[in-house]
Amino acid sequence: MIRNLAASRLKMVQHVTTRKKKTVGKGKLNAPAFICPLAQAKDHGIRQVMDAEGNLTGDLADPDLADGQLIRLYEMMVLVRAIDDRGWILQRSGRVEFWIPHRGLEAVHTAATIAFNDDDWIFLGYRHPGTLLLRGVPLVQLFAQFFGRADEPFKGRRLPTLMGDRRANVVPMTTQVGSYIPHACGAAWAAKIKGDDTRFLAFFGEGSSSRGEFHSALNFAGVHKPPVVFLCENNGWAVTTPTSLQTASTTFAEKGDAYGVRNIRVDGNDPLAVFAATREARDLAPEKGATLIEAVTYRMGYHTTSDNPDLYRTPEEVAVWEAWDPLIRMRKYLENKDLWNEQHEEELWARCLAEIDVAVHAAEAMPLPGPASMFDDTFEEPTWMLEEQREQLLAELEPGE
Ligand SMILES: Cc1ncc(C[n+]2csc(CCOP(=O)(O)OP(=O)(O)O)c2C)c(N)n1
Questions:
Q1: Contact yes or no for 103/83 (Cβ under 8 A)
Q2: Could you tell me where in the chain the CATH 3.40.50.970 domains are found?
């Protein structure tokens, strides 16, 4: 009931946006669709553990996670969905300046995160709140980041959802997509040289594979074999660019072949397939070096709140993907194992919504950064020019600003 309320509220808000913009986009759907390949996964070289009903029909073995871990994974996927629902509403009601939705992308980052050890390093993308939560970062800290409050690791200076936390070994995303892939590779190489057993995971989208940095990093990784897993989340669209206009290769995984980097293509809406592939890649890293994983998934929501997907994709395309919703599949898998039922589901949603309410209210009540703080942390020792500018700004501010 509570979940349905949240879903219908979300639909309502999205509908308003869609209706307003529909006339603008009339007749402009020229981009090729991203047809869901998951029903014919084998034909597309996509490895699966489960089918759409959560049955073990795939060609990857069930990784046999303990019951507690399976439930923790599912609960996190649901919390991540609920955060997205709320983030959308907060932005549309003017309380958060920007939102980067992650509906449909809950499986890849949560399953990959638990496949790594907590002291491994993760280079994050911008649709991945579950990683930080799984590393123990409090929900209120995430919302403080979304609201741009002073008391969060980035002091309110970054776009909402460009999050991270050094204390949790999570490196924040840089806005230049793909620019940090060489850094993940280099950090992994440094660990290898030092004889340190830490391993590294880097998330990025398929759009980022068109950047030079992706190719430099893969080439370097093929030669030097650092312990890094490159996790390419192929969610079908890089803003308005579909995968078929992003590359002429059949898959993103096969790009690893050119560089001598082990690679695998998995169903990104199958959390157990993502877990199995990522855990294996992590385990093999000391001996084999890097792995490139392409997780085939779908961005069900908008690219950002500044986007309107009605201009470039059809509702029919989205509807096919919705039948492969990772939350529904994982829930069915748990139900097949007698680990889940309707009551658990309702309690979980009620808990998630209540936790989010508390975090939203606490974070929104936190102070904003003062205007002069923009000069802090630029250099270890501020230059005379910055000091002068700070003084000038302070002189112009009204008391209390
Ligand atoms: C270097 C660079 N070029 C362009 C952009 C504008 N931009 C922001 S997100 C995005 C799409 C990136 O697609 P992908 O890497 O597949 O990630 P997704 O957003 O689909 O998760 C683009 C082109 C950017 N941020 N950085």
A1: no
A2: 2-369
